[in-house]
Write a structure and sequence with these properties.
alpha+beta, 5-stranded mixed beta sheet, 15 helices, 30 strands
C-alpha cells in the first residue's frame, strides 16, 4: 500500500511539473512570439519574434511581374523587376507597440488561433519619394520600351468576302503610373514578396474592344455600304457598282464617324456620262447614199441628269441596296450605242439639198429642199437633233414678216421643216443666194407626207454629204433604200460663217386669214419634174465630187453655239406654248 501511494504521488507530481513546465513554456512563447492568426498592418506575423520581423524587413524585396512588349521575340510573355526594402528606406519604427501585442497574448491564444488584427501607426515605414522613384524606373513606364494599347477597329476591306472584318484590340504593356504606385504601396505595406501587374489590373487599357458596342455599330454600317450592288444598264452594256469600288469612297474619322466621299460619287457618275452620254458629240452617220459622214454638233442624244443621279446613288449606298438601275436623264435617245438615233429618222443633206425620211431602216420618203441662205449668214447648222413638236397651220413671225405654213416641224430651236408653196423650185444651189432664214423648206406635198410620218422626238440628222469618212465597200453593202436624186458637185461655201437668224414667234393661225404674202395655190408648186427625175436618176459617186478645201472652220464650230450653255436647260418634254415661241423665220 505504501508503495502504491508513493507511485501515485510521484505520478501526480510529474503531471504537475509537466503542466507547470508547459504553462511556463507557453507563457514564454506568447511573450516572445506572435501567436497564430496575428496580423500587424495587414502583415501576417504568426510565429515570428519581433527580432525576426525586423530581419524580414531588413532583407525585404518585392518582385514585380510585368508584361513584355509585343515586339519582344522572347517566348516568355513576362519579365520580373525588383524593388528592395533598402532602396525605399523600409524599416520597423517603434517596437513598443509590438511588445504591447505580446503582452496582451495569453497561453489560451495559442490554442484558440483567433485572428488578431492590429493597425500600428509607427510600426512599418518607408520613404514615399524613394518608393515613387523606384516605381517610375519600372520598364513598362519607359516610353522607349512600353507600347500603348491599340483600339479594335475595322480591318481593311476584304474583296473576297466583300466586307470589313474586325482587327482585335492590342493590349500593349504601358502601365498606368498611378495604379502601379498604389499596387506597390499596398504590397510593400504588407511585406508581400511578389506583385503581378496584370493581376493587379495596372495596365492602360484600350478604349474599344472587338466586342464593344462602338465597333459593332461601325462595322455594321461599313458592311451595309459595301453590300450595295447596283447594276446599271445601257442597252447591251452593263456597269456594276459594288463594294470593290464603294469601299474606296468611305471615310472613318478619329471619332468613328463614317462618311461617303460625295466627290467620288460625282466622279463615278461623270465616268458613266463620258462613256454613255451622246448629246453634244460628233457622230459618224451612214447616209442613205451608203457613205459614212462626220456630223458635228446638235443636241440630240442621251443626256444624264448627273445631279439627280448622284443623289439617288448616294441614297442607294446608304441603304445598302442591291438593284438594277437605269440612270436619271435630262433627255433620252432612241437607242444606246453609236447609232443612238435608231432606225427611224429624218436626214437633211445640206450639201445635196435633199431630205430623206427613213423608217425602220428603209427610205419611205425623199425630196429636194432649200435650206438656209448662206450668203446672208443664215445657213442651216449641221448636227443631230430631234423633232420638238409638230403643228398644223402655224404662222411664223419674224422681224419683218409673218408667214403662214400648213406643216410646222421644228427641231433646232427656231429652225424646222415646213412647207414652202411660194417656191417653184427646190434643190440645187438655191440655198446659197436664195435660201431660207435657216429652216428646211419643202414642197407642200412632201411636207404633208413627212408630217404624217414623224412624231415628237423623231431624230433629225443634218449633215454635209461631202464630209465623207468612209464610202461603202461594194454593192453588197448597199442599203435597201430608194436611190437619192443627183447631188450638186459644187460644195457649199463659207459654212463656218453661217448663223441662224433671230428667233421668230409662231402662232397657230389659219392660213386663210393671214393675207401677209403672195401665195400660189397648193396644187401648183409641186416639183413634178424633179420628182420624175428622182425615180430614174442615180446619185453621183462622192469620189468625183470633192469640195474645195476651205480656210474656214466647219459649220458646227460656231462661236455662237456653245454646248456648255445648253446644259443649264433640261431638254425634257417641252410645252408647245414655249416651244412655238422659239421658231425661226422662213422665206
Amino acid at each position: 500500500m505504501v508503495k502504491k501511494r508513493k507511485s501515485i504521488v510521484i505520478l501526480i507530481g510529474t503531471v504537475v511539473v509537466l503542466v507547470l513546465a508547459a504553462v511556463i513554456a507557453a507563457n514564454a512563447y506568447v511573450n516572445t512570439y506572435f501567436v497564430r492568426g496575428t496580423q500587424v498592418n495587414g502583415i501576417d506575423v504568426s510565429g515570428k519574434k519581433i527580432d525576426s520581423l525586423k530581419d524580414t524587413v531588413k532583407d525585404y524585396a518585392l518582385q514585380i511581374t510585368e508584361r513584355k512588349a509585343e515586339t519582344d521575340s522572347d517566348e516568355d510573355a513576362t519579365f520580373i523587376e525588383t524593388i528592395s526594402g533598402n532602396a525605399i528606406g523600409l524599416k520597423i519604427g517603434s517596437d513598443e507597440p509590438l511588445y504591447g501585442i505580446l503582452e496582451k497574448q495569453t497561453i489560451w491564444s495559442i490554442f484558440t488561433g483567433t485572428k488578431q488584427e492590429y493597425e500600428l501607426a509607427d510600426c512599418l515605414s518607408y520613404d514615399e519619394s524613394a518608393l515613387e522613384a523606384e516605381v517610375q524606373k519600372l520598364k513598362c513606364l519607359d516610353t522607349d520600351y512600353a507600347t500603348a494599347p491599340v483600339n479594335a477597329k475595322p480591318a481593311k476591306y476584304d474583296a473576297e468576302t466583300k466586307s470589313y472584318p474586325v482587327t482585335p484590340e492590342q493590349l500593349g504593356n504601358t502601365l498606368d503610373e498611378s495604379l502601379a504606385l498604389e499596387a506597390v504601396k499596398e504590397a510593400v505595406s504588407k511585406l508581400e514578396e511578389s506583385l503581378d501587374m496584370g493581376e493587379a489590373d495596372c495596365y492602360v487599357k484600350p478604349e474599344i474592344t472587338e466586342d464593344s458596342e462602338e465597333i459593332t455599330e461601325l462595322t455594321d454600317q461599313l458592311n451595309k455600304y459595301v453590300s450595295t450592288k447596283i447594276t446599271y444598264t445601257f442597252g447591251d452594256a452593263t456597269e456594276v457598282l459594288d463594294g470593290d469600288t464603294i469601299h474606296k469612297w468611305i471615310r472613318v474619322d478619329d471619332k468613328g464617324a463614317v462618311s461617303i466621299n460625295k466627290k467620288k460619287i460625282s466622279n463615278y457618275v461623270a465616268g458613266l456620262r463620258k462613256k454613255y452620254d451622246t448629246i453634244f458629240r460628233n457622230r459618224e452617220f451612214e447616209t442613205s447614199y451608203g457613205t459614212t459622214v462626220k456630223v458635228e454638233g446638235g443636241d440630240y442624244g442621251w443626256w444624264m441628269n448627273y445631279e439627280q443621279e448622284e443623289k439617288k446613288l448616294l441614297n442607294l449606298i446608304e441603304k445598302g441596296k442591291q438593284t438594277d438601275r437605269v440612270p436619271e436623264y435630262y433627255q433620252k435617245a432612241v437607242a444606246y450605242g453609236e447609232k443612238d438615233y435608231g432606225d427611224t429618222y429624218v436626214e437633211v443633206d445640206l450639201t445635196g439639198q435633199h431630205v430623206f425620211m427613213v423608217k425602220d431602216g428603209k427610205v419611205v420618203l425623199e425630196t429636194d429642199c432649200v435650206t438656209g441662205n448662206e450668203a446672208r449668214g443664215n445657213g442651216t447648222p449641221q448636227g443631230a437633233y430631234s423633232i420638238t413638236y409638230k403643228q398644223r397651220n402655224a404662222t411664223l413671225k419674224g422681224e419683218n414678216y409673218a408667214t403662214p405654213v400648213d406643216y410646222w416641224m421644228p427641231f433646232n430651236g427656231g429652225i424646222g421643216l415646213h412647207d414652202a408653196d411660194w417656191r417653184s423650185r427646190f434643190g440645187g444651189t438655191l440655198y446659197k443666194y436664195s435660201g431660207s432664214h435657216g429652216c428646211v423648206n419643202l414642197p407642200p406635198s412632201a411636207a404633208a407626207k413627212l408630217y404624217s410620218l414623224i412624231e415628237q422626238g423623231t431624230p433629225v440628222i443634218c449633215y454635209y454629204s461631202d464630209h465623207i469618212v468612209k464610202k461603202k465597200q461594194d454593192s453588197g453593202d448597199k442599203k435597201d433604200t430608194a436611190s437619192p436624186t443627183a447631188k450638186p458637185t459644187v460644195a457649199p461655201t463659207a459654212k463656218a460663217t453661217v448663223k441662224p437668224a433671230a428667233t421668230p414667234k409662231v402662232t397657230a393661225t389659219p392660213k386663210a386669214t393671214s393675207g401677209t404674202k403672195k401665195k400660189k395655190k397648193k396644187a401648183t408648186p409641186k416639183p413634178t419634174k424633179k420628182t420624175k427625175k428622182k425615180a430614174t436618176a442615180k446619185p453621183k459617186k462622192k469620189a468625183t465630187a470633192k469640195p474645195k478645201k476651205k480656210a474656214t472652220a466647219k459649220p458646227a464650230a460656231k462661236a455662237t453655239v456653245k454646248p456648255a450653255a445648253k446644259a443649264t436647260a433640261k431638254p425634257t418634254a417641252k410645252p408647245a406654248e414655249t416651244q412655238k415661241s422659239q421658231e425661226n423665220e422662213i422665206e
